[in-house]
Amino acid sequence: MTDVVVVGAGTVGGWAAWNARRIGARVTVVERSTAGQGASSRAAGIVRAQGGTATAVALGRWSIDFYERQRSLIGTDSGFRRLGYLLVARTDAEAAEARDRIAMQQGEGLDVRWVDPDEAVRLNPTLSPDGIVGASYSPIEGCIDPPRNVRAYVLALQQAGVELRERCECEEILFGDGRVTGVRAGGETIACSRVILTGGPTLGASAAALGYRVFAGGARHQVAVSSPHQAFAGGPLPMVFDVAAGVYWRQEEDGLLFGWSDPDEQPGEAREIDWEGLERVRARLAADVPATAGLGVRKVWAATIDYTPDHLPILATPAEGLVIASAAGHGMMWGPAVARAAAQLALSGGTDVVDVSDLGLDRFDEEGRSRLATDSIALPFPSIT
Hints:
Layout: E1 4-7, H1 11-23, E2 27-31, E3 46-47, H2 54-74, E4 81-82, E5 85-89, H3 92-107, E6 113-115, H4 117-123, E7 134-138, E8 142-143, H5 146-160, E9 163-166, E10 170-176, E11 179-185, E12 188-191, E13 194-197, H6 203-209, E14 217-226, E15 239-242, E16 247-252, E17 255-261, H7 275-288, E18 297-307, E19 314-319, E20 322-326, H8 331-348
Parallel strand pairs: 1-2, 1-13, 2-9, 5-15, 13-20
Antiparallel strand pairs: 3-8, 4-8, 5-7, 6-7, 10-11, 11-12, 14-17, 14-18, 15-16, 16-17, 19-20
């Protein structure tokens, strides 16, 4: 007998299981592949709190605090490094939006401010000032190492006594008298009173197979790392996000890591590299970060990343004993906070992480349109519907 079955051993599922065990529950995780095999081990590792909504800010701040406390909590960590983050604006309209956003973020307690082009370049000397009118900047943001994050939560699960069943697919959630009584997974029945359903890019499909409509999709997201250059080999440089262009970058292995998505692509599993898209992004970076001009590419990979129509997480309780949780493609950035909230919702019906009253499935209409304002600080993705 177990108290909670967590479906999915990605970042959200892994940390949700650990949190549920810390609260005192007996926990079993079922994963149809292996822990972290999907986007959790292929992410760029960006962690920020400069969200476009108060909810996004709260989730980011909570997760940053968690990453900084990990070693004292579990004896290992996800490799979080504070680098700072510049979100550049290229037009007066973008600057006005950024200033409004900063006011909201500061009201939520975030250390963030507006910087002019000269200060942006002083903070990150590899950035060209041409074409930017300024940037929002937070010094507390940074990055983690995604494979190290997977290792951290797997070790934490082992230490806590959580049972992890890999290559064990959830086939059915069982109900009796309107509440969860167990799951069928890997051909066996696991009795439990609570289920946390995660799954990242596959959440929509897996939820549909279990009888729930969840507007969460998956699409190709690509990341590359340039050859080394001395401009990137010194002390920490702030990360940069050109929100309008949907391109971000940061230091990695004495080179530049950069990532992007294409909203014109068909949604679905990432199966190959878009080499033409890579060259377009490299050409843009050569203008924004002159040191990258002529640099080769040392690594490039494609991952399937999840997203929701409003770019906000899902924390839903559609039936007694069932929680559905998605970080909306921000698994490194929001994953720990979403995981903690999901575990608390499953075990007590409430959470002190963030207000989840508007994060359920009922915010979407039949076409997947959300009644909530979209988080504007997100990569562009194709339509789910």
